[in-house]
């Protein structure tokens, strides 16, 4: 036997309190009766009968409570096998982890704000599979497409600028990794959500986007940062905080490149949103764009369906309740 809502069984801890409360009520009732008639004037048999009836009634009430709690906890035994088909989308999220994502023009910085927004997005998913790609100078599939959201969040928590050893920003490598992750699967809709500041320093992102389009992949881009930009705050080997400099010793300033991200989205038939403050844009993309895409079967397997048996406990509880009245 198993329980569908086992946490409700904790209500059984109230049973001793209810027993004590019934005892207090009995003492109060007896005290009130003593005001009308002296106890020593009653025959012993009458006093014993009164106490026995009260205890019997209390026992029925306690049994009713216990059985009702057990019914609410949904006891289950016996099962049958049935086919379970999961409907949803496949969404690969590619996150820029280059050093420019440490810029603090978005609080606390671009990368940490992205991770918080992705966590909020996962809360809205229902049957969708989600995967994670980290990229900077190259790309790596951190988490393949999965319906295990807890496993995905573990990979997301480990995301940092050290996730990819090669520095720089190569958006085309992220798109190529997404194409590789999807492979030649025949699902009708393949989506990639690309979160970056758009500073593409290597490769040809538009050429990679055209290849993705040919593979049936739509790329939705999220631009994070401001057009004014800010200096990139980093830490050295001694843990001292400073600003990133180029080879000539000049401070590096990172700015949002919206034009490239808009072109990538347009080429693949996706959409572009700009992250700003509290409205990051991922929730808008999912609710207004991705959730309207026709869902397909993402997983199909056999699972046990247990039979609910709460009716038996509830029936006996009702019998105990009626018995307490007589």
Write a structural description.
- With 326 residues, the chain is an alpha/beta fold.
- It folds into two domains: 2-79 and 305-323, no CATH class; 90-294, Rossmann fold, CATH 3.40.50.
- Helix content is 39%, strand content 24%.
- The radius of gyration is 32 Å and the shape is elongated.
- The two termini are 34 Å apart.
- The mean pLDDT is 83.
Keywords, please?
alpha/beta, Rossmann fold, 326 residues, 3-stranded antiparallel β-sheet, elongated, 6-stranded mixed β-sheet
Which structural class fits the helix and strand makeup?
alpha/beta
User: What is CATH's topology name of the largest domain?
Assistant: Rossmann fold
Q: Say which CATH homologous superfamily of the largest domain is assigned.
A: von Willebrand factor, type A domain
Radius of gyration, in angstroms, nearest whole number: 32 Å
Average per-residue pLDDT, rounded, comes to 83
Helix content: 25-40%
The CATH C-level name of the largest domain is: Alpha Beta
Q: Which strand order does the major sheet show?
A: 5-4-3-6-7-12
How many angstroms separate the termini? 34 Å
Number of helices: 9
The total tally of domains equals 2
The 3D shape can be described as elongated
CATH architecture annotation name of the largest domain: 3-Layer(aba) Sandwich
Strand content: 15-25%
Number of strands: 13
User: What letter string, H or E per element, gives the SSE order?
Assistant: EHHEEHEEHHEHEEEEEHEHEH
Q: What ranges have pLDDT less than 50 throughout 5 or more consecutive residues?
A: none
